[in-house]
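ok so I'm stuck.
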Amino acid sequence: VQLQASGGGLVQAGGSLRLSCAASGLRLRPYNIAWFRQAPGKEREGVSCIDSRDGSTNYADSAKGRFTISRDNAKNTMYLQMNSLKPEDPAVYYCAVDNLVGVRCSTNYYEYDYWGQGTQVTVSS
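replied:
not stuck anymore, here's the structure
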């Protein structure tokens, strides 16, 4: 299983980025998927997840109203659209897949089994 994250970069505060995560070796559709981020010196933080049972989504308070998680089953790719980026958003962003089927999606990192390599997001003020 490989998750290839991309789309990070440098953006001005208030700008937008769309992160992508292409999966190979498994189909995303049956599994809960999530985005996490980790800034230097901080713990890995759950940003958002999609519950595979009904497509519902959960967001960290820091992401609500600004970020949107989605999945394209045909492309076997997940996305994180990030708008209104703030100076506190810079981090390495990771995509992840939980290979336990039929449970509510979580933003706890220890519940995820497959991880992308991370993509750096930098926000200039």
